[in-house]
Specification:
ATP-binding; alpha/beta; four-stranded antiparallel sheet; 10 helices; Alpha-Beta Plaits; six-stranded mixed sheet
Length: 302
Amino acid sequence: MPHTHYARLEIDSLTKQFGQTVALKDMSFSVDPGELFGFVGSNGAGKTTTMRIALGVLAADAGTVSFAGRPVTRDMRRRIGYMPEERGLYPKMKVGKQLAYLAQLHGLSAPEADRAVMRWTTRLGIDEHLRKNVSALSLGNQQRVQLAAALVHDPDVLILDEPFSGLDPVAVDVMSGVLREKCLEGVPVIFSSHQLELVDALCDRVGIVAHGTMRALDSVDNLRSRGPARLEVHAPNAPPGWADAIPGVTVLDADNGRSILQLSPAADDQTVLAAALRTGPVHEFALHRPSLTQLFREVVSA
């Protein structure tokens, strides 16, 4: 049953130092109900530290975490589903027992916990492993158990640290489907990942983090439209230098009537097309926006 109290998760001006190392500096963003938020950055950028502060595992030196406009309390944290990057399951405990135990820790009664365990292990394709120790499972199935542990108490917020690492393509599809389902119910979902093509495909918005600060924050489409666009033009009769004088256009490569042009944000692709058509027929005219991977490299190295 969808909850009626899904709300926004807000991370406001978090700062955290470990000795002389600044792990977070003024980290701020929010995740709306039903939003899938991708949190990306290199190792050591501050993603895991931010997530641990949101969960209350770490204390911030400054800044606040709030849900539904109120500071996150211990009771409220029981309503968060968390999947840590270092998987936190008991290796010598049976899958079913472990999940039921974790569900009860989050406030479910024993019968509710048993029903939730059956529901999620079936949904994630691991119900045949209920009586096995976690350590006896493949890495991919251990991942699925870890996701079940994050979902079994029907959380109001999902925080997942590298949930896709080590998963086979089928498990990636299952995981992606579950995250989309939770969003449709109204749960705010935040996950970190190094697999940027997945972030690109799944997320409503993305935050790119470097050295403990938020460097870029927007929808994937908006972020990509900010980057330099490239045009591939095939105009077989075009003379050398045909595009040199067009405002905002840099010729990256030109050979045998094929040109690769970089457009500044102010450049107009229709002006380029008109110039190409003046030289004769145009067989190809394709605009390419930078991928999230290219953007990430630019933002992180800036």
